[in-house]
Amino acid sequence: MGLPDGMSTRARYFRNRLNTGATFRTGLRRAGLAGAALALAALSALVAPLAAQAITDSRADELRHLVRQDCGSCHGLRLTGGLGAPITAEALEGRDPDDLALLILDGMPGTAMPGWRPLLEENEARWIAEYLLKGDQP
Ligand code: HEC
Q1: SS3 assignment for 56-80
Q2: Residue 3 to residues 11, 15, 18: CA-CA distances in angstroms?
Q3: I want to staple 3 with a disulfide (CB 3.0 to 4.6 A). Which of 8, 14, 69, 103 is the partner?
Q4: What does the mean pLDDT of the chain come to?
Q5: CB 100 near ligand 1, within 6 Å
Q6: What atom of ligand 1 comes closest to residue 116's alpha carbon?
Q7: How far apart (Å, rounded) are the C-alpha atoms in residues 103 and 58?
Q8: 81 C-beta closer than 6 A to ligand 1
Q9: Is the CB of 103 under 6 A from ligand 1?
C-alpha cells in the first residue's frame, strides 16, 4: 500500500524542507523580538541612575581603601587637599552626586585628576561620590 519507498522519502524530504522554512521564519521573528528586547534593556541601562546596582560590603571595603590610598595620594590623607582640591564633605557640599560620579569616572582633562573608568563601574563611582558627600571617611 501507499507510495513506493523512493517517493515517500522524497515527499518527506520536501515536507521537512517546508517545515524548516517555517521554523526559520518563526525563528527570525523571535530573533527580532529578542533583538528589540535587548535594545530596550540596553536603553534602560543607559537611562537608569548610576546607583542602580547595589555595592556589596566587601566591594565597599575595597572602595574605601581606594579612596584613602589612591584618591588620598593626591587629595591628601584626610582628603583636605594636596595636589588635588579638598574633597571633604564640606568642600563638596551641595554638589550633585551624579556629576561627581562622572567627574570621578572621566577625570578632569587638563589637570592631574585622572579618569577612573578603567578601575570603577559607574555605580561604584556613584558610591564613592556619596561616600565623599557623607564625609564619614577616616
Ligand atoms: C594624580 C592625582 C589625583 C588622583 C590620584 C585623584 N585626583 Fe581627584 N583631582 C586631582 C586634581 C589635580 C584635581 C583638581 C583639578 C582642578 O580643579 O584644577 C582633582 C579634582 C577632583 C574632584 C573635583 C573637586 C572639585 O572641587 O570640583 C573630585 C571630586 C575628585 N578629584 C575626586 C577624586 C577621587 C574620588 C579620586 C580617587 C578615585 C581622585 N580624585 C584621585 C588629582 C587627583
Answers
A1: CHHHHHHHHHHHHHHHHHHHCCCCC
A2: 10, 15, 20
A3: 8
A4: 78
A5: yes
A6: 38
A7: 24
A8: no
A9: yes
CA distances from 121 to 4, 36, 92, 133 (A): 67, 25, 21, 19
70 lines ligand 1 (CB under 6 A): yes
Q: What is the pTM of this model?
A: 0.68
Distance CA 111, CA 52 (A): 30
pLDDT for position 138: 61
Q: Are 134 and 70 in contact (CB under 8 A)?
A: no
Q: Is 114 in the pocket of ligand 1 (CB under 6 A)?
A: yes
Task: Enumerate residues 6+ apart whose C-beta is below 8 A from 38.
Answer: none
Tens digits of residue pLDDT in 3-56: 455 545 445 544 444 444 444 444 445 555 455 554 545 444 444 556 657 999
Cell of 50: 548610576
